[in-house]
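Running this now, will post back.
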Amino acid sequence: MIKKYIVFLLLPLVFLSPNSSLVFGEDISYENDIDYLLTKYFLGEHEEVIRLLNKYFITNQQELSYLYGLCYLHLNMNTAARDYFLITLKEHENNYEVLNNIGVSYYQDRDYANALKYFHLSFISNTDYLIARENYNTVYEKLISGREIDSIQPIIPFTEKPSIYNSLGWFYYYCGDHHNAVYYLKKSIEEDEKYQFSYISLAYLYDEGNNFTTALYYLTEAEKIDQNNPDLQNNLGVVYYHLKDFEKSENAFKKAIDLNYMFAEPYNNLGFLYLEQNKNALSEEYFLKSNEVNLNNQSLRAESFAGLSILLKLEGNNESARSYKDLSVSLDYRMNDIQYIVNKLQWNKALIAVWESI
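Update: finished.
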C-alpha cells in the first residue's frame, strides 16, 4: 500500500560470489572477476574496461549501458557515451545522475546550450543534487562573463567505490541474491561511512523483508548524515507506517513534500495513510495531488488510481470505482496480480479485499 521510493542506477555485472570467477566455455580467467574489472575502472583504465566488457559481457550491453557510458565519457567519446546513457534512461527515467552525465558529454563536445539543458533537467529531477546545480551555474556564469569555457571541469559522479558497491548491491537484489546485496551495500558503507545512499538502500531491503526495526535503524543512521533528504523522509514514513506509528509516518511524508514539492510518492503514501484512517477527503486530495505532480511514473499513477478506486468503493460509488480500477490496470497490468500487490505494494488484507470486490 505504502510505496517506497529510491533513486538508483544499476551497474549490473555478471559474476558469481565476491571471490569467484566466471566460466565462459572453457575459459576461466581473473579478467572476468569483478574485483579485477573494478580495479581497472578505479585506476582509470577505461579502454581496458571496455575491452573486457566486450570480451566477456558482449551479450549484456543493455544491462551494462551505464558502465559503458561512463567509460566512453572518460575517454571523451561523447556520442557513444550519450548512446549508452540514453539506453539507461529507458529503464531509469529522469535519473538525475544520468542526465547530469549527458550534460557533461555535451560540454565536452562544446555544445554548451545542450549541456546547460541537461544540467537543468538533472537539477529539477532532484533539487538536492548539488553537482548538477554547480555544473549549471558554473557553465552559465562562464558563458555570460565571456571567460574561457575550457577552464570549467564538470563533475562526473557515480565513479567512486561507494557508488559502485551500492550499484552492485542493487544488481544482486534484482538477481534475488539478498546475501550479496547486503554484502555490497555494507561494503559501500565501509568505504565511506557518510555515504547516505547505502544506508537508505539497506533500509529499503530490510523493509521489503518486513524487518522494519532494522530498516528504521539504517534510516536513523542516514538521518544523522543529512535529514533534509526527501527520499530518506519518504522511506521513514513508510517504515513508521508499518510500525503503526501513524503520526510519525504522516510527519515524515509531509517533510518529504516540504523538501521536494514535486515528489509524487509521499503524496500517494499520504493518500493511503489517510484512507486507512477513514479520512476520505484528505485521502482523495493527496491521491489527486500525487497524479498532478507525477510527470511520468506510470506504475505510481496506477497505484494512485487504485487508491481512488478503493475510496470510491467504500463510499458506495461502485460505477466510478470500477472505472478507476480499469484505468489503474490499463496503466500497469500488475495491478491485477495479487502477489505483486502483497509483495511489492505491501497492501494489507482489508485493502486487497475491497480491491478484489470492485
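The CA atoms of residues 312 and 321 lie 5 Å apart. More later if anyone needs it.
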